[in-house]
Structure formats: C-alpha cells, structure tokens
Amino acid sequence: MSAIYISIKPIHLNRIVEGIKNYEFRNYIPKKEFDTLYVYESYPTSSLKYIIKIDKIVKAPDKIDDNGIGNIEFNQGDKTKYAYHIGEIHKIEPINLKTLKEKYHFTPPQGYAYDTRYKELTNYLKSVVK
Predict the structure, then answer these.
(1) Of 47, 38, 37, which is closest to residue 10 (Cα–Cα)?
(2) pTM of the predicted model, to two decimals?
(3) I need a surface site. Which of 5, 50, 93, 109 has the fewest CB within 10 A?
(4) What is the tens place of the pLDDT at every residue in 4-35?
C-alpha cells in the first residue's frame, strides 16, 4: 500500500506520541488507499519527524472508542468526517524544512500529498523504517 504526507500541529502530534490522542481526524480521505502517514510537524518545529502506520479509517457516523482526545466529539458528529486510527509510531531523525525544500523540493501539504509526489524523499523514508 502507499502513504500520504500530512501536516500536523505540534500540540496534536505530541498528544499522538504520548498516546492520549489515538485518532487523527480529517474531513477528507484520499482516493488512493494508504496505510502510512509521513508526518510533517508544522510551525514552529517545521520538520518531518514521524512515520505513522494507520490501522483503519472510520467514516462518520460509524463510532469509535470514546477514550482519546477528540473521540467523543467525533462520535457526536462534531466537525470531522474521518478518523484515522493510529497504529505504530516511528520517530525518525527530523528533516528540517530548509533541507526538505532544497534536497527534495518538498512543500508542506495543506491537506495531503501522495507519496509519489516526492519519490526521492519517499524512498529515503522507506529505507529508514522497514
């Protein structure tokens, strides 16, 4: 399966890493199937820091476990349409935005970007986590 690049704010990413947020909520789902998120942590960190495996994607109005930040709101139908269940989390050596732009022509995604958009970066990330 493939992967997508997404941006997540530091506060939310920290909660995912701490295990108190077990779903990433989005209003969209890419057309191509994916099971991996290449996570760019937005300002002020501004670097690609994590690779996250997704176990499943739940579409509202289907319900998820109430335990976790944002889960009750999702189940109540507030805001988002999709819940990406967080599986394995792999911390990688951070790649700062300057390097991402200069070496890989990367721009932080506003929504998401398929892994095929940044082939050289994707190949590197695949070699880091197997």
Answers:
(1) 47
(2) 0.95
(3) 93
(4) 999 999 999 999 999 999 999 999 999 999 99
